[in-house]
Amino acid sequence: MIDYAKLQSTTYLIVLYARFSDGSQKRGTSLERQFDVMTKEVERLGLSHVRERRIKDEGKSAYHGHHRASGNFGEFESEVMAGEHSNTLLMVERLDRLSRQGHEATLDLLRALTRNGVSVMTLDGDFYPAGEPITLVQVITSSVKAETAKEEGAKRAYRTADNWNRLRHKAKGEKKALTKLVPPWIIVLPNRSMIVDRVREALVHRMFALADAGMGARGIANTFNKEGIKPWARFKGREPKIWEHTKITRILANRAVLGEFHPKVDGKPCPDGPWLDHYPVIVAADLFERVRQNANVREAVKGGAKSAEVPNLFSALARCECCGSNLAYQKGRKAGVFYTKGGKTYSYKRPVGSLVCRVAYNGGDCSNRAYVAYLTFEDAVLDMCLHLALDDGSFARKDEVARLNTLIAGRERAVNVATERAQALWRAFAQTASPMAMGVAQEAEAEAEELAKNVKALKRQREAARGRVSGAEHLARVAGIRANLYTKNLKERRQIRVKVAQSIRSVVTDITVNADKVATVVIANGLGIIRIDGKGRVLTPVLHGQPVLHQKEYQLAALDAADQMHATRTDILRRARRRTTENSGRKQLPDSETHESLGM
Predict the structure, then answer these.
(1) pTM of this prediction exceeds 0.85
(2) In what residue span(s) does the Recombinase domain sit (predicted)?
(3) How are strands ordered across the β-sheet holding 528-532?
(4) Helix intervals (H) in 65-135
(5) For position 166, what pLDDT does the model report?
(6) What architecture is the 175-302 domain classified under in CATH?
(7) 592: closest CA among 327, 196, 275?
(8) Which of 96, 148, 516, 590 is the most exposed place for a label (fewest CB within 10 A)?
């Protein structure tokens, strides 16, 4: 039975979770319908006054556990196990939205959630309160539902696999397109027959001819951009602005030009191997092999993989204000290189680079050709944002939090048992007034109080393990992270810079740079706005629409504002994770190789 009075009197963070397995359902209203019915249930229960968070997984199978391994629910589960949810209500349409992997996996998941402060509710009447053991009736009910869902999932998976096998054999025999995702020079007719787009075929021939003559992918891309050749779009409505060298590289390495098709099953190569002569052949085999050999030689001479130092913390985040494309990082002088200024010799303490509009740099149609000195820009952004980006959770000892959560759950249960025993003994004393009964009752009460003190001490330890400190203390430990951003230990440097780059994205919504080298940094969808000039000087920052004159004042005020608006730094982090997932279609482009910085 659900205790509705207790449910309505408790202030929860309500998490609504919706999921579907088949990617084709994106065209439907499955998620909208699930969220709609859950929202109505929240209103019916009188819980609409509490904070709400929505999590969704599109095309993630619960039968294979993809939503937990690589989906948004997996992120939420990690947060729970790290002790970030102490009073949360997770609502789903049915139990099979959480798992279709059988009763053991489902029960393990439910126990993990409830032991770590999350209550679980389904719209068909199931409720698993946090901190309470799952009853025998609930075990039986959930097991039956879980096994039924697993059997349905297995049948669905078998039918889907069987249908795809039939389609593959038919497509292979008739040399027809298996899906509409074919090489960009192929046109799929209504009957799935394939013909070659002759205009694009000619451009592929030119790519290979230029590559065979020794031109690299970057040079080919620049040539096409200068000639105004329109780049090819993989999907309608997502036309790129310029030819990227990565696109040229993929085409030059694509064996589909030789007619080969490499089918995959669950993301892995099909056991049958590639289908030869499936596509029309448009490039001679000897030309393809020469181009591949030339590319391998250039890669060997260049020195292999890109730097592991993560030089640009704002990759795919900073954009050109004029055309909207990403800013490319151009390398300059390395750390340790000497230079002369005013008759004196100095050396660069950190690697020098600059940011420039990728479209303008590659000869595309954009007038913003300004180069922004990277180091001064990075310093300015981190001065104003890093204290928000690195929240308490960034410094938490998550294993210790998880251990204490388990310990606290057990001790709280012991407190309840001891309290109930003491109350029963006092009731017995009231009836008998026996001195011995009073002594036993007092001992039981003292035991319960001692256990309660122990729980309070454990909770204080958990707060410390979660990294909770004052605003001033937080700024001090953030300064410690800043000090190691350019440590000489490259492995440690990469770890720290990746952590900082990910954290910055948790609070910075957008960065744009105009032709005057002025950058506008938007924090948490308008919580704060910062403008930085070309020399890295922070113009008057704005917080909640009001100017803030001093940096320290801004930092502490931003921390206070985050807490006051029920959007703690952890909440900002969660919202940003959802935003990043929903915008995952936005491609993260690699940094460019070399360019001299025009700024210091």
Answers:
(1) no
(2) 184-301
(3) 318-320, 508-513, 519-523, 528-532, 542-543, 546-547
(4) 66-69, 72-81, 103-115
(5) 66
(6) Alpha-Beta Complex (3.90)
(7) 327
(8) 516
